[in-house]
Amino acid sequence: MRGVLAIRIFSLFAVTCLISGIIMNLSNSSEVQLQTDKFFEVDSEMATEDIAPVVAPEPRDNADTKISTDKSVELILLGAGGFSSLLLGSLFSEIFKITVLVSLLTPLVSKTKSRNDLLTRGRILGYLEANAGIHFSALRDSLGLANGVTAYHLQVLEKNGKIISWKDGKLRRYAISEISKSKLETIRNPIMGTRLAILEVLSNSGRIGISSSEISKKLSISRQLMSYHISELRKYDYIDTISDSRRPKWIITNLGNNALNSSITFDN
After folding, report:
1. N or C: more exposed end of the chain, with fewer CB within 10 A?
2. Which architecture characterizes domain 190-267 according to CATH?
3. What's the predicted TM-score (pTM) here?
């Protein structure tokens, strides 16, 4: 995955900046402390020998020290900013969070393999079989797993062809690889928005049926837009007409009811 490689390179850069900045800062502090100790040591010797104390000259490398200090602060801020950006990105996008987890935590988890790995993957497969299309966070919470553990086992299962995943907005959803094409199509493309509202209106109207103009009035949408959505719903056999008149009344089909129920369950 390109995203995983990019995250690892970015993280390595941030770590390098952070460590380099800290080392430079400690080095500058030690140098300043050493100069101070030397001054007081000389001043003490001169006082012991009854020689008038001399005002310590300004170190010649004060400017260099200041530049070095500024550079170390910049590196520390750059490194901290890099990690902060990863954290913020993970908070706002599940897909980005999964990429970060796979990049940084799964290598650590993979080194702590145990006999429970097969059991955990079996639990995940069983849950995905019963809840196809569930997204990462919901799966993690339902099984009570940690972020890194969940990301690691999902990565292994997908790499071995046991499961599939796809992007859904800011989420990533999962299903077993053996899922039927028709079910997968329904899950990946659930009925939403206006089409979902049309199916709900038709479902409530029962077998009596309702015309396009009546539906458009109920949903407050234009006839042109209604005509488009009706055409799309009919293409998938989600709706049908009672008669072949010029202004037919529409009813919901069994496929439409299944799609409606799947969409409601999917959203929840």
Report:
1. C
2. Orthogonal Bundle (1.10)
3. 0.47
